[in-house]
Design goal:
single chain, about 290 residues, alpha/beta, Nucleotidyltransferase, domain 5, 2 domains, two-stranded antiparallel sheet, about 15% strand
Length: about 290
């Protein structure tokens, strides 16, 4: 990506990239960043939070290797170190969740959702790394992203597994996390792949063990060709948001935990910040 010079008076002086935070976006994300604890060595550091985010967003958006981070941003090892630190200490989760609530409140919704949509996406991987397999149905060698989003398409839960893991098996994982983290959700829409006769207990298990109704949205037999299914297009759009970032067009990460964190970073940038600043349309389902 080509850099331009940041306007005078912005928080960062020097080159700006298309992936860099605007002043408006920075004003939204700054209040939800963790406060540094001076007693734990969290005082003044060499690189500010905005530069940390701009450097990580550059890797996400461009898809470059960490070692190829431009010299006018952070040193690559420092940027990678902060990305990993925030993954391990839950900072990415806290930023993501705070911004998601802000988007929902701004749209006139309750902070926590009552309904959601589940789906899975198979994605190719680079060589190496854990949890790689083959999805025979999609004919894809790599990993699978199991996600649950709210009715605005904002991420609630994500689990990255081998592509060989069946949607129903991955569905159990993310539904269990959903029940723990979002007790307000009582209804989840899914496609027919989650109700296959081989694992017909998934729907009853979700109802009896988790208190969640999984409603299957099926294509009617009399409809031919492509058709946007109600309740289903929201999660497809969320997958579209993810792959706009070249780092997520393929899974380059060695660890699945890193893949999950990178997905949350993408949703922070595209799903939440752009919604608040008006950079993305806020269409959603009426619930």
């Amino acid at each position: 990506m080509t850099a331009t010079i940041c306007p005078p008076g912005t928080a960062v002086s020097g080159p700006c990239y298309p992936s860099s935070l605007s002043d408006e976006a920075w004003g939204i994300i700054q209040p939800v960043l963790p406060v540094r604890d001076l007693r734990k060595g969290g005082g003044v550091r060499k690189y500010g939070d905005r530069l940390v985010l701009d450097s990580i967003f550059y890797v996400l958006r461009s898809g470059c290797q960490w070692r190829m981070l431009p010299r006018d941003l952070m040193p690559w090892d420092a940027a990678h170190r902060w990305f990993t630190k925030w993954r391990r200490d839950g900072t990415w989760d806290r930023i993501h969740d705070a911004l998601r609530r802000q988007v929902r409140i701004g749209a006139g919704r309750d902070p926590e959702p009552s309904a959601a949509v589940i789906d899975a996406q198979s994605i190719k991987t680079s060589e190496g790394g854990e949890a790689r397999g083959f999805d025979a149905g999609k004919r894809t060698a790599g990993r699978k992203r199991h996600v649950i989003v709210d009715t605005m398409g904002l991420l609630l839960v994500v689990a990255v597994t081998s592509a060989s893991v069946q949607d129903r098996a991955g569905g159990r994982t993310v539904l269990a996390r959903l029940a723990t983290d979002f007790r307000t959700v009582s209804l989840v829409w899914a496609d027919g792949g989650y109700a296959n006769f081989v694992d017909s207990t998934l729907l009853s298990w979700a109802r009896d063990a988790l208190g969640i109704i999984v409603e299957i949205v099926k294509r009617t037999d009399d409809v031919k060709g492509f058709k946007v299914l109600p309740r289903r297009w929201v999660v497809e759009r969320s997958f579209g948001w993810l792959v706009r970032n070249r780092r997520l067009a393929r899974d380059y990460e060695r660890l699945t935990a890193t893949s999950e964190a990178m997905i949350k970073v993408a949703m922070i940038r595209l799903g939440s910040v752009r919604r608040i600043t008006g950079g993305a349309r806020a269409g959603s389902l009426p619930r």
